[in-house]
């Protein structure tokens, strides 16, 4: 292919050389021979050099070419990934022949089925060149599935070796055999990487085999109908553990988009349950579920792809008039939902427990933010542990007078604004629950403040969005006779700002977030013993 010009010939040689190494290794396992072992070990240097030649050609093509077409670059990147993994397979072959030299009884390995894994590796390697040059997803899936077969072979061999060890059958030979099967199993891992690289070359999207199969199964395509380029587009920017992407169904006038999510089964099942709950409460608020399926510990779901854009995009890019309109729709929607789901029962605040649970992540990224007791000008200053203890004790004396149904992760990018339809949608709902509305309020405010945009227009619109929501939340509290809202909000925003530091790489802004959270903690803890109704949330803490 012209796309792989300058790479293709050496790549073909690489596949052939690695295949020969694997075949020669099988011969050594069956008939140990020192000369053959030496040839395998010396041939490894040639493969290493070939790998470097292909790697340099790939990088030269990526960085030195004027052709910046994404498909070209994806194919070259995939070729390099495959090249690296082919060299790993060759290394594992050398490791296997090295282990053969430790066998005091070379025939000992014939107790176990060693041929089958070698055959599976050889068959998969025979597909690699065609799979890449044709970007053939069906062949890629066959390569990936070799890893599953090799895992099965390893498990059977491991069980048999363990049985022999328990019976005292030559532990030295048994351990060497175990190592040989372990290297064969690692060849399977490399083949899986190769197959997934071909899928990347074909689709232009990095998908693990289980993600590809989940997408294929959820779309009910069947194995004989591969996903084609352009059908799937990843949606990045989420910190969720789920893989999220947009899938295009159909073409032309019948074309429509759906959202594909794949991830932890428990998490997605909870999200499904919450989406259905929100749909019953307010039809159209959450995306409708098109399909859902589980497969062991993972699950996949197809959701309606909602029109519009998230509120974060609106606040950062739209004119002030549209930002005002979006803020109005958000507050009107939220107010109606809070009123609709309000239940008069006390709800304990838990912001400090949430803060403690996330501090390790904060300090893992920014260890300089942790502080102990200090003496400043003869004045003793409590350390963070003491401050958290005092704040947690104070918070236990606070409770919201009622519960509402919370979004649970009320960030700007989890709210969709449809300007044409003049409505708001909720997405990413796996944390929805009944609780204190000060929690959703605090998350909304912090998700504005922590955005690292510091030009006058962007910061002004972020502050506008915070101001409008805070005005609304205060009005709701007054209507409901909630006199301790400001105190609970102080604890909740302290938690939200301090823990937001774990998302910010820039040390100076992370310190700003954390210290503002600490300031609010000191303010809240210092108010303990006095009426909570008298503690006001300081709006200035949200002005940068």
TrEMBL record:
InterPro entries: EcKL, Kinase-like_dom_sf, PhoU, PhoU-like_sf, PhoU_dom. It holds the Pfam family PhoU. One of its GO terms (biological process) is negative regulation of phosphate metabolic process. Residues 14-98, 121-198 form the PhoU domain. SUPFAM superfamilies: PhoU-like (SSF109755), Protein kinase-like (PK-like) (SSF56112). Belongs to the PhoU family. This is Phosphate uptake regulator PhoU. It comes from Solidesulfovibrio carbinolicus.
